[in-house]
Amino acid sequence: MAVTEVGVYRGPHYYSHTPMVRIQLDLGRMEEFPTNRIPGFTEALLEALPGVGRHACSLKVRGGFEKRLREGTWLGHVAEHIALELQTLAGSRAVRGKTRSVKNRPGVYNVMFAYNEERVGLAAGRIALELVNSLLPPELEGISGLDRIHDFDGAFDLEGRLDTLKRLVRRTALGPTTRSLVEEAERRGIPVMRLDEKSLIQLGQGRFQQRIRASITGRTAQVATDIASDKNLTKRLLDESGIPVPRGVVVRNVEDAVRAARRLRFPLVTKPLDGNHGRGVTIGIESEEQLRFGFAEAQAQAKGRDVIVEQFFAGNDHRILVVDGKMIAVAERIPAQVTGDGVSTIRQLVAEVNRDPRRGDGHENVMTRIRIDALVEEYIGRSGMTPDSIPEAEQVVQLRATANLSTGGTAVDRTNEIHPDNAEIARRAALVVGLDVAGVDFVCPDISRSVRETGGGVIEVNAAPGLRMHIDPSEGAPRDVAKPIIEMLFPRGSRSRVPIIAITGTNGKSTVGRMVKHIIRYTGCTVGLTSTTGVYINDILTHEGDATGPRSARMILRDPTVEVAVLETARGGLLREGLAFSQADIGIATNVTADHLGLKGIATVEDLASVKQVVVESVRRSGHSILNADDPLTVRMARRAGGRIIWFSLCGGAELPPLVREHVDEGGMAVVREPGPDGGTIVVYEDSRREVVMKAGDIPATLHGMAEFNVANALAAIAAAYAHGVPILTIRSAMTNFRSTFEQNPGRLNVHDAHGFRVIVDYAHNAAGLNALGKVVRGLSDRYKRTIGSVSMAGDRRDEDLMEMGRIAAGIFDVLIFREDPSTRGRPRGEVMHYLQQGALEAGRSPDHIHLIAGEAASTAAALAMGRPGDLIVVTPTDVHAAWRQVNDFTPVAVRAATRAPLVPAE
């Protein structure tokens, strides 16, 4: 077996709408050994991982996978289920998976399984393959290949691997607070994007986004967090506002602490001036010896050297959560404690308590494991005990003075018991500090009675309060505290998503995208666009290069100024990691023709159509799918497309396709070109109404209607703008000003006339694109003495695709220049030009009219050097920006230099 590819789908993709890890596995000779032919394999697997046999699998019944194992299934399928089980055992439950054979590659499978944390999923996949290898009998280990592929040393420790996976989950999984907020956002349909491996999360998209890090929000003022982190300043501000707080002083050495204690009188509390989560806090100090210990603990946790010595409020410790100036929840926090059995030591009792599955390290679980440290030893030492003391049966031993959950404490919900005075004091404390989300630490004998009567008050106000004590208290009702925080960030009726217009297809994507952007700009919105030439915010290029994949789409969706996202969505990104979004408002499929076939398991145009179909499948129910009625493969997408269908077609009037006619008659939407002068008339149908948009020839980019491919692109763009709600008058005005200039539509039918001959620069990179360009060139040919074409194709295309490109070029141009880019994409140098030349020769073109030139710049220079008055030169570059600069910079000096560049005639 060999792992040939590993990838991660982060959004809807070819195989599923669930994010998945994909491992492409070549079973090799192991294809001959399904599980029922491997002695002892099933039994060993079920012994190692009993839970995996209980998976429903495709049989959709508990234990279905065990049945599949015993009947015989292949090892890729086994690895899928192991990876899911390992993640679940590690604390990151994942249940969905698929294993599919790769077309035309016997024994090769795509093993796919869901994940919650990407690194955890990848690690689980690796461990799954190692486990499979370890369970093979000796006679098969040598042919499995996994020991070589994975540097597997033959010694497999499942428990050790699982512990490693658990640690990885702890490092990468969202904690309870962040997870609760993310889940609430997802319930409300708010998009979620994780921005780092910790807890920085973007909720929403574009200009509607909000950010959180745990319970710190983008609305949390820095000055408020600074105030909250300065405990002495907080206390002074609260005191000046009439809020009851303990008296205290700030000291920097232990002698000052002792002098302060004499003025304040015991019992006292010591804590770091800038501390949090109860670290370094010692309460109930009754002696100078305890004070010295408490001072040392506080100063050890302080970022500076400052320690607060303050009065001790007697009573129970409560955490009151205040959100947006409203009291939301109350929890009484109980310090870590154990109950004796008359036999076990305190250390043993702690170990037993820590076995509770609800307890974890740090903040990963709803409760934290208890650690015996110096503070615990000091506190129980006040009662004459040590960790090795044996408490009597039923004796409750409190281990800490502080009640923080992060040190092993528990929580009891008291939300319905709080006295209104106490709730108001906590609310005002949060407002005084200025926090939008605040955890108010409140000590009093009885939370149901006013502290004005019983004594007590606010001891701290905390930024970034943990929510787990409210979400899942040890006792009492859980509180949905995430809901008010999300409602504060996204009030009911507010928007969290920017409209997403996603465009796919073989040809026309870039032009349609730029047309759509151009129209929507007329509405005053800020538009983000991804395209083959880069990422644009309005008309500003923010990132140059091919930007048709999910990474570029995320740039747009993260940009805080974007109001509408127009995303060109190419095959490559879809196959590599899926979509960058879960739902689109408008999906457009322009066409599907043979291109990129033979790559990534896509062997036929039907396969290619299935990949591109993902875009329209992702359209939300209230959205629109815009499909080309003139293309059979996009027509087939209608069965799976989301939202309302809008057809577009170049065949209007009496030639209207039957499916469009039926659709329109039933009140459906369509945008079609009806025949007539100036390229015909573009009309919109909706609810059985017909409305004229404009003459096709009035769109400059159509060259008076002659560039029919741009008429089709305009139909798709107009349909998208209309579906987006742009008025027809605005659409007409915008399209009247859309030209095929390099500035508006780089690399798409750009015309340059400054050198005494005409140059057209167009990114015609496949057969369909070159055919469409050829129609324009043939329509103009009677105006020019000669047509000269510089043509190429990427080396990762099939031999027959290269030859077809050569044949098409031979039927368009009088003089042919076939080039080869420096990156031949795996082919030997010269092979691309050879196949292009062979296709042209087969089409009957004379070798005297064919030139082979390696390098895009050199071939463009040679074409320009050939140019004479009355010629038409067509350049089809990969790097359209460089080619356009080269055309613009061309001078007579450059002509002479280029003329000396060797042209290699075809043999």
UniProtKB/TrEMBL annotation:
InterPro entries: ATP-grasp, ATP-grasp_RimK-type, ATP_grasp_subdomain_1, Cya_phycin_syn, Cyanophycin_syn_N, Folylpolyglutamate_synth_CS, Mur-like_cat_sf, Mur_ligase_C. Its EC number is 6.3.2.29, 6.3.2.30. It catalyses: [L-4-(L-arginin-2-N-yl)aspartate](n) + L-aspartate + ATP = [L-4-(L-arginin-2-N-yl)aspartate](n)-L-aspartate + ADP + phosphate + H(+); [L-4-(L-arginin-2-N-yl)aspartate](n)-L-aspartate + L-arginine + ATP = [L-4-(L-arginin-2-N-yl)aspartate](n+1) + ADP + phosphate + H(+). It holds the Pfam family Mur_ligase_M. Keywords: ATP-binding, Ligase, Nucleotide-binding. SUPFAM superfamilies: Glutathione synthetase ATP-binding domain-like, MurD-like peptide ligases, catalytic domain, MurD-like peptide ligases, peptide-binding domain. GO terms for molecular function: ATP binding; cyanophycin synthetase activity (L-arginine-adding); cyanophycin synthetase activity (L-aspartate-adding); metal ion binding; tetrahydrofolylpolyglutamate synthase activity. PROSITE patterns: ATP_GRASP, FOLYLPOLYGLU_SYNT_1. Signal peptide: none annotated. Residues 235-490 form the ATP-grasp domain. In the C-terminal section; belongs to the MurCDEF family. Homodimer. Catalyzes the ATP-dependent polymerization of arginine and aspartate to multi-L-arginyl-poly-L-aspartic acid (cyanophycin; a water-insoluble reserve polymer). This is Cyanophycin synthetase.
